[in-house]
Amino acid sequence: MSQPHMPPAHPFDDDKLKEECGIFGIVGVTDAANFVALGLHALQHRGQEAGGIVVHHPEHGFNSARRFGYVRDNFTSQSVMETLPGPIAIGHVRYSTAGSKGATAIRDVQPFFGELSMGGVALAHNGNITNANALRRELIERGSIFQSSSDSECIIHLMARSMGRSIPDRVEEALRKVEGAFSVVAMTRTKLIGVRDPLGVRPLVLGKLGEAWVLSSETCALDIIGAEFIREIAPGEMVVISEKTGVESHFPFRPQKPRFCIFEHVYFSRPDSIIGGRSVYETRRQIGVELAREAPVEADLVCPVPDSGTPAAIGFAHESGIPYGMGIVRNQYVGRTFIEPTEQIRNMGVRLKLNVNRALIKGKRVILVDDSVVRGTTSRKIKEMILDAGAKEVHFRIASPPTAWPCFYGVDTPQRDKLLAATMSEDEMRDHLGVDSLKFISLNGLYRAAGEASGRNDAHPQYCDACFSGEYPVRPADMLEQGFQMKAAE
């Protein structure tokens, strides 16, 4: 049965960076797919375009379901979940980065499945393979037949060509040939496998539910099923989990200094998740504290751009002593556009999702705290709404440094010439947005907020911050082949 084509994303969301996906797996429970569906629901913020679940049952074998749209609309009906029996399952929610934009093809929806000589294997991937084009060409020349446009499918084909004696061995051998960022969950008939790339760019955590074991992109998905957070999968670590043997840990890659994505702290992860032993909410609140210290301004009200700007706005208000208020209210029920996005509807797109609290805003000097400025289109519309409501002044404070470089490690970033900070100075951006002042947190301030007291170590950065600094920890081979110009060495 063909799947309905997804409607275009809401206009408000066009100006936000999008994480590629969330992954989740569990072994050792009855009806594992139900737990995976709950986990994916908790990870929905990481990918709202499509989702999929693969399960294995000793009598019924492997089964899968892949759908466009939200988890709640696809994986809550009894008719669907009854087709997914078994004690082991993995799942995936996605945005498209590498592969078909807009997820027009169901064949691009993960997890991917392959039948190897020693049995079936399913795999879900969060991140981006930076040498996928070269790998794909080589595999096709050697006879591989690809079913999707996704870079993640390369891993399955590499496994099929491996001479490893077990599926975990083949996962290991395949990922040694892959460059870029990857957190992977995979499953065989009896084993759950989790792997992070040597730099640990994308997150992956281990949890326990009774005698069952869980892998997830974030701890918030462990909470929803009542699982205990055990630890993070270490950068470069591979865990092989079964009901009989428990968790076996391997380190198949050459050790490297970790470079976790700092934007997970700023925006991608849910505020109720724990990253590196630190509350995401607390980091975002501390970003607001640092912003208030670095870029103070006289004003009457600190107002978040909901929802991602809220913790930073709370921190800014507390540190500055300026009252905090919900000057903008978010309509939680809009989701994607429910009517054809004509030009007139596009122009009112932000108003469908956000509305100004006029009684609070009128006559005030307002500080708007947002997580980022990408193209700037949404920021301009929000500024206009605030002024229309009678604000005397509008000051933007941004809870991340200027986003001046595209990400090649699993974040859907516009081309560099579409990024406002790539072509304008901070003052030029201020004038372009038409606000009274505009200030971004410094890179050092962001590092301090993330728990690095001395700021950024420029010689050996503690995080991947390429979208701000232009310093890519993994060479983006495919993009260089297409003519991308990296930052010149200073």
From TrEMBL:
Sites where the protein binds [4Fe-4S] cluster: C261, C407, C464, C467
Keywords in alphabetical order: 4Fe-4S, Glutamine amidotransferase, Glycosyltransferase, Iron, Iron-sulfur, Magnesium, Metal-binding, Purine biosynthesis, Transferase
A GO biological-process term: 'de novo' IMP biosynthetic process
Gene Ontology molecular functions: 4 iron, 4 sulfur cluster binding; amidophosphoribosyltransferase activity; magnesium ion binding
PROSITE patterns in the cross-refs: GATASE_TYPE_2 (PS51278)
CDD domains: GPATase_N, PRTases_typeI
InterPro entries in UniProt: GATase_2_dom, Ntn_hydrolases_N, PRTase-like, PRTase_dom, PurF, PurF_N
Signal peptide bounds: none
Cofactor note as given: Binds 1 [4Fe-4S] cluster per subunit.
Catalytic reaction(s) noted: 5-phospho-beta-D-ribosylamine + L-glutamate + diphosphate = 5-phospho-alpha-D-ribose 1-diphosphate + L-glutamine + H2O
Cofactor(s) listed in the protein's UniProt record: [4Fe-4S] cluster; Mg(2+)
Residue ranges constituting the Glutamine amidotransferase type-2 domain according to the UniProt record: 21-244
Binding site for Mg(2+): S308, D370, D371
EC number: 2.4.2.14
Family: In the C-terminal section; belongs to the purine/pyrimidine phosphoribosyltransferase family.
Role of this protein: Catalyzes the formation of phosphoribosylamine from phosphoribosylpyrophosphate (PRPP) and glutamine.
Protein name from the UniProt record: Amidophosphoribosyltransferase
Gene name tied to this protein: purF
